[in-house]
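[Q] Does anyone have a clean structure-token version of this?
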Amino acid sequence: MTSTPTDDFVQFMSRRLAASTAFVNGDIEPLAQLSTRGSPATIFGPRGNTVQGADKVNAANAQGAAIFGPGASNSLEIMHQSADESLAYWVGIQRSTVNISGQHQPLSMELRVTEIFRREHAGWMLIHRHADPLSSQHD
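[A] Here you go.
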């Protein structure tokens, strides 16, 4: 039985979860390995900002990881995901309890997330992330 692009992407998502968890613990390296180095690339951040271009996106990700300290917990609730030969995505909720540098108490975060990946020579690479706060009203 041969693997489909969706099967391959489902397996890849365990790496994506590990990279996300490393990020909220202050370690950018696993995410950097999964992030495209070629434009187009974009982020629509949780504070309403937008970043365009692979170099700027990767720099913004590094700055973002730097605000977190170790000891975070993190999970991804995948509502749906799919892939074809060249593009893949997942949509869902990221739930984290993080330690922010300079703050004494952990912070809980719940974000609505959409991520898009492009298949490149190195495999699935993140090309777009849209994350914003989950409201208290949801089904």
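[Q] Thanks! Anything notable?
[A] The helical segments are 5-23, 29-34, 54-66.
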